[in-house]
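Service request form, structural biology core

Requester: graduate student, group of Dr. S.
Request type: structure prediction, single chain
Budget code: on file
Notes: please return the result as structure tokens.

Sequence provided:
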Amino acid sequence: MVERFDIVLNTPAGELSSALDVPTGFVPVTAIVPAMRRLGEEAERLEERRASEAGRTISCRMGCAACCRMMVPVAPPEAFALKEYVDNLPADRRHHIARRLTETKHHLEEHGLLDQLYAVAEGTEAQSDEEFEPLNRAYYSLRMPCPFLEQEMCSIYEARPAACRELLVTSPAEWCQDLVHNPVQAIPVPVRMGSALGLLWADLTQSAPKLIPLPIAIDWAERHQAENQPRWQGTTLLDQALDKIWRLLSQAFQGSGEKADS
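Core staff response, request fulfilled:
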């Protein structure tokens, strides 16, 4: 059984109205991930429209995968959802992905980054963007393709993390070949759904918010599978998730006096 909810969010780029079907029974936290990603994409489309009205054109195109060399953070619910997605793939695809992940981890280990990524994933205290920055830069300096990237295209596109869905640029595509030294112009992200899901998980588990580096997300989900056993009422998950979205949207307004109302 599902119940339909009409959601209205006030974002910096305008009002977002959406209808979400939410299970009324008790479900795992992964059940809320698709709805959260959908809200994030709808909010991002408002920002795309605002950019277009200002004469800016999105330069991201299929096959342009320069950003797929960045360290992608995923929230615990996304890590569990990704593991479920991969587990349901045909055996040959699962084995191929497992091989690619092993190769990626070996490469990270050779450059002294793998232990640092595991430390982030298993950390018990929240870290700021400033604390993450040195690791982000070290990871990006490797220019290592995402383990899920094949022929410069995402092989898990329908299940890709929220962070991958949120990066859109209006500067020339070639500038993205060096995101550190080029003045790449990204459109604003009204609410980072990975962060919202991380905050939701922290509340559900009474732990510090965390984001897990994508190359070790499935490893993390396997080690923490017991934490994915509890079930919550779907409507309760939605209420708590929306609370986190409103909190992040309120911060996005930067004291403008507007509110991220429901």
